[in-house]
Amino acid sequence: MTNRLQDKVALIIGSARGIGKGIALRFAEEGARLVLADTEVEAGQATADELGVPFIRTDISQMSDAEAAVALAIGQYGRLDIIVQNAGIYPWQLIENTSADDWDRVMAVNLRGTFNASRAALVPMKAQGFGRMLYTSSITGPHVTSPGHGHYSASKAGINGFIRAAAIEFSGYGITVNGVEPGNILTEAIELHRGAAYIKNMEDSIPLGRLGSPRDVANAFLFLASDDASYITGTTIVVDGGQLLPEGNDFRLLPP
Ligand SMILES: NC(=O)c1ccc[n+]([C@@H]2O[C@H](COP(=O)([O-])OP(=O)(O)OC[C@H]3O[C@@H](n4cnc5c(N)ncnc54)[C@H](O)[C@@H]3O)[C@@H](O)[C@H]2O)c1
Questions:
Q1: 20 lines ligand 1 (CB under 6 A)
Q2: What's residue 8's pLDDT?
Q3: 173 tagged catalytic
Q4: Ligand 1 contacts CB of residue 124 (under 6 A)
Q5: Is the CB of residue 217 below 6 angstroms from any atom belonging to ligand 1?
Q6: How far, in whole angstroms, is CA 200 from its chain's centroid?
Q7: What DSSP letter does each residue of 98-119 carry, written as one string?
């Protein structure tokens, strides 16, 4: 522990489990004061209890929920330095099987949730002249994709566009806006919703030879949240074990 976030107040949305829980644990190790938010009350409360911090049930697709979560952080600590909007859903569904309602739900959580988090955090961050807005994007959408990720890819590519636009608009307020693009990260949700064959396929395509961990992703968030990143805004960090690199099917093929 090096106290890289000493006394910084951070609200982490989508932190009951998986990558978001990894971010919460990592930020806590570095001295941040946390508020956790998630739709899942039992798991979210359990993670918050583990860390001894407040939890609020939040559906980030709803602006009033985003505002309530920000209000809890302000009520608890008097300021809000960092917001991480990590909540995201990734139904595995071909475009031809996707209804308009399916499409809207993915956009509501992943993309409108990003806007809602930003809009709610802007008020206190602008007033205090400091803020770090951070988003979980993905390599899926901005760079690559695979069958069944139409709505998801569109939503994550949209997050990157929003990051750039918000970074410009908030640059005069002392607020930076950045994101992390995870590759394939081994979380309970990936194991449950994608299964062994998908995971094996991804593993084989990763030069570093393994899926990432929530902590791998959390370390990139930590950097972007810390003072070390004070001159970085409007960008994203890829955390993918080199998965974007191969030009062909077999990156292990060497010259004769
Ligand atoms: N796991 C991966 O390989 C991977 C790769 C790239 C990007 N991502 C992104 O990382 C994020 C986390 O993924 P994960 O694998 O940890 O998934 P996860 O399902 O384990 O975690 C997501 C969390 O967000 C919460 N959540 C869902 N909808 C919400 C809502 N409307 N409001 C508030 N909270 C909500 C869930 O309850 C859960 O706790 C997502 O944005 C996902 O798109 C994941």
A1: yes
A2: 98
A3: no
A4: no
A5: no
A6: 24
A7: --HHHHHHHIIIIIIHHHHHHH
